């Protein structure tokens, strides 16, 4: 198999996994534990962290964009694309930068990614609504990102260090 076909296949498999995780977590909202509308654990972020650590930033970006686009199309909510893409891109950028710092674990990187994702979504809401009112929602979201980021960070450590992806090029 050629190198480009191998990369395409690998990215497609990871995109499908991220999309499946995103859809699955939408079936079990966290509003039972935290009374914040729209709060999610961020399981699709596991694939982003994995791609950043095991593949390349470019492949992680393409997987993220494909997941956001397909998720919006499957969910029938193109407005959600603005929120998921803004949050996802900010989280990806923050995590990519933090992964370069020595001594910072995937646990910390994932928590920062969760906080960045929530911040990106609030910024998108402010742009869409044209008012700063969504900022009121940011502090509780950032507190929740400590928990959600910690959960996905712990799972990321297991995935990145224990699950090799065959055919890495």
UniProtKB/TrEMBL annotation:
Coiled-coil region(s): none
Pfam families per the UniProt record, alphabetical: Hpre_diP_synt_I
InterPro entries, sorted: Hpre_diP_synt_I (IPR014535), Hpre_diP_synth_I (IPR010898)
Source superkingdom: Bacteria
Keyword field: Membrane, Transmembrane, Transmembrane helix
Membrane-spanning parts: 82-99, 106-131, 137-160
Protein name according to UniProt: Gx transporter family protein
Organism whose genome encodes this protein: Candidatus Flavonifractor intestinigallinarum
